[in-house]
Amino acid sequence: MATTIYTHAEPAAARLRIVAAPKAIPAQTGVWVAVSAIAMSFAALTSALVVRQASGTDWQHFVVPRILYLDTLILIASSYTLELSRKRFAAEAAGPERATLRSSGLYWLYMTQTLGLLFVAGQFLAWRSLAAQGLFLATSPSSSFFYLLTAMHGLHLLGGVLGLLYVGFRLRRRARNAQTSLGTAAVYWHFVDLLWVYLLLVIAIRM
Amino acid sequence: MHETSAQPAVHHHSPPQGFINKYVFSLDHKVIGLQYYGLALAAVFIGMILSWLMRLHLGWANLAIPGLSHLSANGAPGGLMTPEYYLSLMTMHGTIMVFFVLTNAPFAGFGNYFLPIQVGAEDMAFPRFNMMSFWTTFAAFLVLMAAFFVHDGPPLSGWTTYAPLSSVGAAAGPGEAMGQNLWAVSIALFCVGQLLGSLNFIATTLDLRTKGMTLARMPLSTWAWFITACIGLLAFADLLPACILLILDRTAGTSFFTPGGLVVSDTMQPHSGGSPLLWQHLFWFFGHPEVYIAIVPGFGIISHILPTFTRKPLLGGMRVMIGCMIAIGFLSYMVWGHHMFVSGMNPFSAILFSVPTLIITIPATVATLMWLGSIYGANLRMTTAALFCLGFISVFISGGISGFFLAQPAIDTYLHATYFVVAHFHFVMAVAAIFGIFAGTYFWMPKMIGRMMNETLGKLHFWLTFIGVYCIFMPMHYLGLAGNVRRYSSFTDDYLVRLIPVHQFITIAALLTGAAQLIFLYNLVHTRWWGPLAPDNPWEATTLEWSTTSPPPFDNFGGRHLVVHQGPYEYSVEGASSDYIMQTESQPVIKS
Question: Which of B270, B330, B452, B503 makes a 20 to 30 Å CA pair with A24?
């Protein structure tokens, strides 16, 4: 049998690859991991909803509050404004520092947060409208799931608003890797946005 | 998303000053690992004492246990426990052991301590999340313990807390009021802690490996923790909403799990249409992966330690072992229904859960054969850690074989909820995982506390424990086949009365085996302060944790950035100058 000698120096290309590999940023991995866990939680709740609807005869259908559709538009707009903000900061990082780009980037970032808060306010109105129909948390499994899903989603969205506040603080301070933080926060924000569209579909179909 | 940076990914933090920052609210993964290990150690002794109390009652139902009335005046008047209090103790035993011992020690404890070191990182990816992870878990433990001290005592619905027993509140019995609330809140907190931990494990493994530490060069223990983190991420993300639904049913009047028209203790429950089966589905979709969260780190620890003492790589190669662990993790999500064969689930779906359950035995058997084949013909260094590896393989096989029977719906219908099941899961999950923890402890303690544990005491501990667990759990198979139902606090039927002597034998064995753990505790405490100082690499092992001092400095490698040149298990390489080659050595490896 032939004797092969393996040395570390031998696969030089391999070593070069290791040296040249871009430094991975844990926060970027971490946000995807967090997103998959949250997706799993909502998948569990969805399957619970399907099973629960089939298990009893007490599922009350109700009119989905109209405000939810407006809210959906608001949230999609917030994803767009966040991208506008990211573009400004990316342009600033690529070229010489320009105050207009920075302030415009921050403006769209604050706009995103405002839209996020508007969305939560809209959700609150939706709850009021449901309560006006006489549907409370314990009235029917459909309303239980409605309140639960919207509340859990709203909490995740408020978490996103806090995250963007922190990112804005870092951007203003010109902190190291602040732009990466913005990218990471954007992944989360778009996910929470998509999650809402999914939940709206579930609510519209099932309730 | 593709910004690259010349800066290090994790900014360095300087060593903390002061006792609180150093040992209490520490960001250092090593301290957090020790905290998890310490919490598990406290929890395992509490859980063990609970099992003693239950065993005493099972053997001698009329025996008044001195002092027990102080723990609960209602539950054990005059030291004689009521059937309900027996169930409360059983619930707490199961919950403490599964969550706070079998998850905390092998995964969160050893994983936190050694995963960053084994990949050559200075710390976890998110040290603050890591600290939050431990303190959330600790809070969860305190909340659970509080259930002992509320008016009605701990819940009695078992660690699986089946609805509607767990969802209707005080009417369901003592402990089902505040005790069950505390249980649900505790487990929800625990889920949050584990999710934060899993996030850290995954990001650290993917992003913080040192130069040259390719995935293929990662030690099997790190692989196991990584795979466990992936399992845990999805499993705990399922249990957390389940706990929220349970809490809402109990406190907000919703009817997720509580059916309509339910009369409990002569009172009609104000619920409608809920599905008790839904709780079982949600619970076991977490619960079965949880079994692998407990045992896969054991797989990794055993596969990591065995090559060190057989002085050769694992038979079949580490890729096969990694494949086995991934396959087990993947399949663990498809078999939850095998816990529900007799639950009223559609009987046709039983076969759908039975087949993947039997398929899991394939990767489990391959892994077992790899360990056995590695021992064959090896010049085994018989240390305590090696003995516990052998013990792990033994109890894993013993517990695994009874799994073949239980995986089949027709046989399970008879054996379900008997002591046969108790024997099965204690062997395959509890005792096997505990043996993995012991193997890891004897192997890594020199690194963790910088002192060598006493081998004579260790071997004595092993033999007493090994013989002890077989005396406890082997007769339970017989009890189960004879029809002895579990969760009964005493036996009055004729056919059960005849089995009481077997229970008495098991009780004596449990008391003695438990007492043998005091040898371990003494050994651990004595080593911590008075043991002989440990060299950097006492076992002549190869991985990165042995390339640093015992215990490692704050930044793990004293400012060095290690470069990895070798696979993790280069033992007895032909032509090499010694019989092991450290991962950091750049000398040529000669393979024929």
Answer: B330
Structural domain contains residue B6: no
Mutate which of A33, A146, A170 to test chain B, going by most B C-beta atoms within 10 A?
A33
DSSP letter assigned to residue B416: T
The answer to whether residue A3 is domain-embedded is no
Tally of CB atoms within 10 A around B422? 19
What are the tokens at B348?
A: 């046709």
* Residue B289 touches partner A, C-beta closer than 8 Å: no
Determine phi and psi for B168, rounding to 5 degrees: -95, -10
B294 assigned to some structural domain: yes
CB contact residues (below 8 A), chain A span 94-133, against chain B: none
The token pair at B465 is 């424990």
Interface contact A178, partner B, CB < 8 A: no
Query: Does residue B589 register a pLDDT over 60?
Result: no
Instruction: Please give the Cα distance from B254 to B248 (Å, whole number).
Output: 6
- Please report whether residue A18 resides in a domain: no
Q: Is residue A176 part of a domain?
A: yes
For residue A4, list its beta bridge partners: B591
pLDDT at B576: 84
> Dihedrals φ, ψ of B580, to 5°?
-145, 145
- Cis ω on the peptide bond leading into residue B77 (within 30° of 0)? no
Q: Which two tokens stand for residue B481?
A: 């086949």
CB contact under 8 A, B589 and A25: no
The whole-number pLDDT of residue B128 equals 94
Q: Mean pLDDT across chain B, nearest whole number?
A: 93
Range of A41's domain? 31-53+62-206
| CA geometry: angle B244, B247, B252, nearest 5 deg | 115
Position B234 in a domain: yes
Phi and psi at residue B75, to the nearest 5°: -75, -30
> Is the pTM of the predicted complex or chain greater than 0.90?
yes
Instruction: Give the total number of structural domains in chain A.
Output: 1
On whether residue B564 sits in a domain, the answer given is: no
Domain count, chain B: 1
Are B477 and B420 within 8 A, CB to CB? Answer: yes
ipTM value, please give it. Answer: 0.91
Q: State how far the Cα of B407 lies from the Cα of B339, in Å rounded to an integer.
A: 9
Note the pLDDT tens digit of each residue in B331-340.
Answer: 999 999 999 9
Task: Point out the residue among B10, B256, B589 whose CB comes nearest to the CB of A144.
Answer: B256
Q: What is the CATH number of the domain that holds A144?
A: 1.20.120.80
Report whether B286 contacts B236 (CB < 8 A): yes
Cβ distance B125 to A30 less than 8 Å, yes or no, reads: yes
pLDDT tens by residue, B295-320: 999 999 999 999 999 999 999 999 99
Quickly state the pLDDT bin for A18 (edges 50, 70, 90): very low
B137-193 confidence digits (pLDDT tens): 999 999 999 999 998 899 999 999 999 999 999 999 889 999 999 999 999 999 999
What pLDDT sits at residue B586?
A: 86
Give the residue numbers spanning the domain of B297.
25-261+271-547
CATH of the domain at B32: 1.20.210.10
B252 interfacial to chain A (CB closer than 8 Å): yes
Q: Is residue A8 in some structural domain?
A: no
Q: Which of B203, B253, B274 sits opposite A30 (nearest CB)?
A: B203
* Nearest-neighbour CA in chain B from A145: distance (Å): 9
